[in-house]
Amino acid sequence: MIGLRYTRAKRRNHFISFISLTSMAGIVLGVWALITVMSIMNGFHKDLRDRILFVVSHITISSFEGALENWADVSDQLADHPGVEARAPFILGQGMLTKRSQVKGALIRGIDPEKEREVSQVLDHIVQGSPEALQPGAFGIVLGRGLARSLGVSVGEKVTVVAPKGKVSPAGLLPRMKRFTVVGLFEINMYEYDSGIALVHIRDAARLLGLGEKVSGVRLKLDNVDHARRIHRELAAEIGGRVRIRDWTMEHANFFRALEIEKRVVFIVLLLIVAVAAFNIVSTLVMIVTDKHSDVAILRTLGMSPGSVMKIFMVQGTVIGVVGIVLGGILGVITALNVETLVPAIESFFNTELFPADIYLISDFPAEMRWTDVSRIVGIALAMSFLATLYPAWRASRVQPADALRFE
């Protein structure tokens, strides 16, 4: 009761009131910034992950020898697993694409268009042409827009695909070459894929690479990509001895690890704002304790224990922290939920573009607020605010009534 009364009372020392408000404002800004920035980073990471998963399979089943012979049996065996949603065979090989004097290296991926739609979204990002033109024997090819731009080709033109695996003839070893007709262009807005991947029908890829009825592997789509590691372990226990199993977290492990480290570093840096505000709480309470020496001495002479004196100032400092955390949390949640609307409004008001689309991979501000992050931020801020009250409250409990009242 006394601690709450001290908090509400008008201060005789306006400097103490100013520092109290500064401490509260610092906590508000810290919690607000933390929730907003962590939500934006979650959104960026999710957007990047989704773009990568447009092309990369959730789990890939392949052979240790390079080509999978009994892929149909393996695919049927995987159909019974509860976490596997769809399956599709693929052929993957490297090759060179030539058009007049232009030569570009690329990954040649042979796909079954009908089944490919079930395991990836790359065919949904075709911006010119149609995936239906990928028919067996027609030797059609779908290029990434960046790759097509480098070769200087468009839909309807022909390119020559040169496979590295040659064939033996009386004249010696000759490379496998085949002219393909460009039937479509896709764009995912990721340079690595838009400038380095070409899609052909799986039967045409088998003829080009001389695989016959074999495939490079089987791609799996899971009902939940976050369960990839668990399902990977389960599949390894079932069929791991005969085939090679890799999940999407292994394909880009360094990239996602770097993103996670970056997120942690940003969290720690922004947490320093809350820490500075907590130090301000220490300064505020130290000055309040000095200002209230005579009040504390009178309470001690009336019989109040040192522990109760500590609780008075702990309550007072904690209230400052709680009010700041609640206000910062509310502002942070509101901002995180509306950041995709607020950023365009700010760009329109200042007539500028924060992330130009022609420079940055992601030009908007995707946000994904997670209540686990909000609760962690609020919990850490509460702990800091509480710890900041301990030393000043302990000093108040050590006040000796006789010394404090000697000159009153």
Structure notes:
The protein is of the alpha+beta class and 408 residues long. It has 2 domains: 2-50 and 255-405, no CATH class; 59-249, no CATH class. Helix content is 54%, strand content 20%. A hairpin with a 2-residue loop joins strand 2 and strand 3. Helix 1 (2-8) runs parallel beside helix 12, helix 2 (14-53) crosses helix 12 (306-350) and helix 10 crosses helix 12. The relative contact order is 0.18. The mean pLDDT is 82.
Write the layout of secondary structure elements.
Layout: H1 2-8, H2 14-53, E1 59-62, H3 71-78, E2 84-99, E3 102-111, H4 113-119, E4 126-129, E5 140-144, H5 145-151, E6 158-169, E7 172-186, H6 191-194, E8 197-201, H7 202-209, E9 217-222, H8 228-239, E10 244-247, H9 248-251, H10 253-291, H11 293-301, H12 306-350, H13 371-397, H14 401-405
Parallel strand pairs: 3-8, 5-7
Antiparallel strand pairs: 1-9, 1-10, 2-3, 2-6, 2-9, 4-7, 5-8, 6-7
Helix pairs in contact: 1-12, 2-10, 2-12, 2-13, 10-12, 10-13, 12-13
Give, in order, the helices and strands: HHEHEEHEEHEEHEHEHEHHHHHH
Question: Which stretches of 5+ consecutive residues score pLDDT under 50?
Answer: none
Computed CA radius of gyration, to the nearest angstrom? 32 Å
How far is the first residue's CA from the last residue's CA? 26 Å
Average pLDDT for all residues: 82
Task: Give a count of the beta strands, DSSP E runs of length 2 or more.
Answer: 10
Total number of helical segments? 14
The residue fraction in helices comes out at 40-55%
Q: Estimate nothing, just give the exact number of structural domains.
A: 2
Strand content: 15-25%
- Quaternary class: single chain
Large-scale geometry: elongated
Secondary structural class: alpha+beta
Major sheet summary line: 6 strands, mixed, barrel
Instruction: State the strand order across the main sheet.
Output: 2-3-8-5-7-6
